[in-house]
Amino acid sequence: MEKGIIQLTGIGKSFKVAERTAGLRQAAKALFVRKHRIVEALKDISFTVNEGEIVGYIGPNGAGKSTTIKVMSGILVPDGGTCSIMGYTPWKERTDYVRHIGVVFGQRSQLWWDVPVIDSFELLRDIYRIPDEMYRENLAVLTEMLALADLLGVPVRQLSLGQRMRCEIAASLLHSPKILFLDEPTIGLDAVSKLAVRSFIRRINQERGVTVILTTHDMSDIEALADRILMIGKGTLLYDGSLEELRSRFGTGRTITADYREYVGEPVDIPGATRLQWSTERAVYSFDTESVVLADVIAQLSGSVELLDISVDSKDIDEMIVQLYEEHQI
Ligand SMILES: Nc1ncnc2c1ncn2[C@@H]1O[C@H](COP(=O)(O)OP(=O)(O)OP(=O)(O)O)[C@@H](O)[C@H]1O
Q1: Does one domain contain both 127 and 208?
Q2: Cα 234 to middle of ligand 1, angstroms
Q3: I need a labelling partner for 260 at 20 to 30 A (CA). Which of 19, 181, 209, 253 fits?
C-alpha cells in the first residue's frame, strides 16, 4: 500500500469562546462573570493523503476546514490526535517543517503590504534560507507561469485581488515545497483569474509532483482540480471519495423544468417527484430515474397543463453537495 505523505489520526481541537450577551446591563455584568462556551471545531479527524494527490477539502461555513489547515501547517496545536506530514509533527518541528510546505490563506496576505512584491520575495528567500540558484530558478519559472513580470515592482497594496493572489501563490512556492495548502485561493477572483489560478495549480501538481490540499466553496474549483474530495461538517469527516463516486451516487437524480400556457389550477402532484417550484407558467420538479420514469412525469404534466417547453437536467455538483449536507444535517 502507498504510504501517505499526510496522515491525520483522531485530531480534535476545541476553542473556548466568550459568550456574547445582549444589552448594556448584561455586558457590564459579563465584565465580572465571564461566561464561556466550548466550540468543538474538530472532533475526530482522520485521513491520509498520498503524494501527488490534489484533494478538495470542502464543507459549509464553520465546518472546521481552516482549523484543519492551520493544524496541518503547524500554526495551531490540536488538543488530541496525531498528525504526521512527511514524517514531521507540524507544530513540534515547525522551523524544519515549513521548508517543505507552502501555505496560502486567500483571506490573508503573507506579503508585506507597503513594499514591492519582489522585496517580499527576497525577505522570504532569507527567512527560508533558499539557496540562490533555487531562488533564481523558481522566481523565473513562477514569473513566467503566473505572468508576474509587471507586478514584481509594485507595492502589494496597489495590486488587485487577482494580481495579489498570483503573487501569494508564487511566494508560497519559492522554496520548492512538496506540499501546498491552499485555503480558498480563488475567493473573490473573477472568471479569468480563477481559470489562471486553477491551471497553475494543475501544472505544478503535474510538473513538480506537488501534493495539494485545497479548501473552497467554489465547486467548479473542485470539478476542475480535485482527484478526491474530503467533506467535513461540524468538525467530523463525512465523505472521502472521488467526484465520480459522488456523481454515480447522485447520478440518477434529474430536475425537470416545464413551461406552459398560463394555468391557474392547483399545482400538479407527480407521485415520486418533488415539486421545487410552481407558478402559473412554470414548474420545476426533481425526481430519481430509478424510481420514476421520465415519460410518466411528462405525461402527467401534459395531462394537466398545456406544455410549451421542457428541459431535463442532471444534478450539478453544487446540488449534490447541498444534498450531502442535507443528508448529514449540517
Ligand atoms: N481562533 C478561534 N477562536 C474561537 N473559535 C474559533 C477560532 N477559529 C475557529 N473557530 C471556530 O471553529 C469552528 C470552525 O472554524 P473554521 O474557521 O475552521 O471553519 P471553516 O470550515 O474554515 O469555515 P469557513 O468556510 O466559514 O471559512 C467555527 O465554529 C469557528 O467559529
Answers
A1: yes
A2: 10
A3: 253
**What ligand 1 atom has the least distance to the C-alpha of 70?**
18
| 237 & 268 share domain | no
Identify the residue whose C-alpha is closest to ligand 1 atom 28.
62
Q: Is residue 303 part of a domain?
A: yes
- What is the distance between the alpha carbons of residues 178 and 193, in angstroms, rounded to a whole number? 24
- pLDDT of amino acid 323: 80
Ligand 1, atom nearest to 184 Cα: 27
Output the domain CATH number for residue 290.
3.30.70
**Contact 263/281 with Cβ under 8 angstroms?**
yes
Q: What is the pLDDT of residues 17-48, one digit of tens each?
A: 887 666 677 666 666 666 788 999 999 999 99
State how far the Cα of 41 lies from the Cα of 43, in Å rounded to an integer: 7
Q: Verify that 151 and 295 share a domain, yes or no.
A: no
How many domains does the chain contain in total? 2
Which residue type occupies 130?
Answer: I
Residues in the chain predicted with pLDDT less than 50, given as ranges, are 1
Query: Who lines ligand 1 at CB under 6 A?
Result: 15, 17, 39, 41, 59, 61-67
CATH number of the domain enclosing 73:
3.40.50.300
User: Is 262 in the same domain as 232?
Assistant: no
Q: Which atom of ligand 1 is nearest to the CA of 60?
A: 25
- pTM for this model (two decimals): 0.81
Nearest Cα residue to atom 25 of ligand 1 = 61
Three-state SS letters, 271-302: CCCEEEEECCCEEEEEEECCCCCHHHHHHHHH
- At residue 1, the pLDDT reads 45
Nearest CA to ligand 1 atom 6: 15
Please give the Cα distance from 239 to 83 (Å, whole number).
Answer: 19
Domain that holds residue 290: 252-314
What's the DSSP call for residue 3? Answer: P
- Whether residues 101 and 221 share a domain: the answer is yes
Q: Looking at ligand 1, which residue's alpha carbon is closest to its atom 12? A: 41
Residue 323 included in any domain: no
Which residue lies with its CA nearest to atom 7 of ligand 1?
15
Q: Which three cell numbers stand for residue 97?
A: 517543517
pLDDT digits (tens, 9 = 90+) for 197-208: 899 999 999 999
Instruction: Tell the residue nearest (CA) to atom 26 of ligand 1.
Output: 61
